[in-house]
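Lab meeting prep.
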Amino acid sequence: MEAATLDRLLDYVAQHNLKDGDALPSERSLAEALGVSRRDLRGALASLEAAGRVWRGVGRGTYLGTRPLKFSASLSSLRAGSSPADIAEMRLVLEPAFVELATSKASPDDLAELEKCARRNAMAKDDDEWQQWDHRFHLLIAQATRNPAIIALMEVVNGMRMKPTAREKTADQDTRRHFAEQHQAVVKAMIKRDGATAAARMRDHLLNVQWRIPSHRG
């Protein structure tokens, strides 16, 4: 249902000629306009937020586009001048530790959502759809840590990855399939509450991502 809601939401944006920086209606109004439940709408908005296509601020509403730097000034320096290689290296250092922490803290609902996201990732038909579910997968892991600082950092990392100069391309189906299998291996280890294995599988995955960045190839 979430995928159908996401399609309706994207159609709504297109039909109303909304662009980056424009505000979306309130959650209640938007759910009524789309003919969907607020729960399904929240899931669709979370997917777009993880992909850097909308941002939400407490008391501010939901806006199209990436979060403006003025609303995340303490982390803005991370965005400035970071190359794809820099981002990949940072992720390799940090995310295995994040997933190990998340394995110990994740609720059954967190794990179910991660499993669902990994399945959606495996079904991606193109690079845009892959990126959407990939960003959501990594943000869900951060959210499962229950650590606001880690969650904020991953939101910024996802935003950095959306820049045209920093975005990893997964243009071929074989690459997407391979990465999806690696995501599923991470989730399987998390479900078994095996943090060390989950961290190792995440490290394997990020090494594969890093290898596909030109400056890291042998």
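Slide two material, second protein:
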Amino acid sequence: MGNKEQTFRKIIEIAYVMFAENGFEKTSLAMIATEVGISKPAIYYYFQSKDQLIAFIFDELYKEIQHDVAVDYKELSSANFKEELLKLGYKSIEAQDKDPYFNKIFNQYVLLAARDENYKRQLVELETSFLTSFVAILRYGVQLGVLEDTPHIEAKAQMLALVYDNIGNFMLTGNQLNYRAIWKEAVNSVIQGGKNDKKK
């Protein structure tokens, strides 16, 4: 990796932490440049404005969230469906443990979306995609015969998505809960409940 690439990645990493801890408003490019160890004029070689840097990090987060809930359906079977669904949540919990800044900076984008229609639109698209991913996973569970095809299957998927999302929010506050057990209970309620549901 060349020096320019190293500096670029360092800018992103430091901006990510500073935006998460201090917010967008209270973090300037000059502050980021100082932490990186370059001059303020030098940072403009990489990003023409703070808004451009904020947008770049958002795009990275957008891709990461979509990747986190992506499932390789070729690897799913009736035998491992529940296990893979559990892994989906466990992976998120472990990632949150390793990166305490993720939800903090994401909340900054939620605040930004309140006054910026572009970010608002993108967050709505991301949220819709997030919910749709869980619906698709459970519908595949129906195809595998793990779940009954009931009118409640979409609500079950949305419940899982909400639990998945809110675990991260609770971890952000520092609450020491057994998040793996919570996710397991949520998955069990969907799998076991799905077997007992009657078609209506």
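Talking points for slide two:
The chain has two domains: 1-48, 63-196.
The CA atoms of residues 74 and 140 lie 11 Å apart.
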